[in-house]
Amino acid sequence: MKPKVAFICVHNSCRSQIAEALGRLYGDDTFESYSAGTEVKPEINQDSVRIIKDLYSVDMNENQKSKLLNDIPPVDIVVKMGCNVVCPYLPGKVTEDWGLEDPTGMDDAEFIKIIRLIEEKVLDLRERIKENKIKL
User: Fold this and answer.
1) What are phi and psi of 61, to 5 degrees?
2) Can you give the residue range of the structural domain that contains 25?
3) Any alpha helices (H) in the chain, and if so which ranges?
4) Residue 63 within any structural domain of the chain
5) Cα distance between residue 32 and residue 116, in whole Å
6) Domain-located, residue 135
7) What is the pTM of this model?
8) For residues 5 and 75, what is the distance between their CA atoms, to the nearest angstrom?
């Protein structure tokens, strides 16, 4: 059975949504991707939706929405995106903090920089899961 990974941040509208989309794109053979937060927004950050669609041909508006922590199933791996305030708590066998800056309100170049960092980290996570380097 594939481990379940939750990408979490406070609003579940930008970085965690990007990570969920890229997790589905790159990690679907290795893990199940979810994202959630302690608060929800009426819609996913539309800059991230537009840029992810441009870069990866993935439409986050089709399959994703802002969710609360209790809207997702129990998970094995919790990835905190970087909160700068109190990060949400979600139980899991393994917790990581990726410490990423929130690009909300920044220009496209900054968004793309954060998206590429998330992509690198998702690919690294996939490899670590495949190689059993994460003890579940």
Assistant:
1) -65, -25
2) 4-130
3) 15-27, 46-56, 60-63, 108-130
4) yes
5) 20
6) no
7) 0.96
8) 6
For position 136, what pLDDT does the model report? Answer: 87
List Cβ neighbours of 49 (8 Å cut-off, separation of 6 or more): 59, 60, 61
Residue with tokens 């990408």: 7
Amino acid at 19: A
Q: What is the pLDDT of residues 27-42, one digit of tens each?
A: 999 999 999 998 889 9
**3-state secondary structure at position 39:** coil
Could you give the angle at the alpha carbon of 26 between the alpha carbons of 115 and 36, nearest 5°? Answer: 65
As given in the structure block, the two tokens for residue 9 are 């941040």
For residue 62, give the CATH number of its domain: 3.40.50.2300
Q: Which residue carries 């990581």 as its tokens?
A: 96
How many other C-beta atoms are found inside a 10 Å radius of the C-beta of residue 116? 11
| Tally of domains within the chain | 1
136 part of a folded domain: no
* Length of the chain as a residue count: 136
Identify which of 30, 23, 59 has the alpha carbon closest to the alpha carbon of residue 129.
Answer: 30
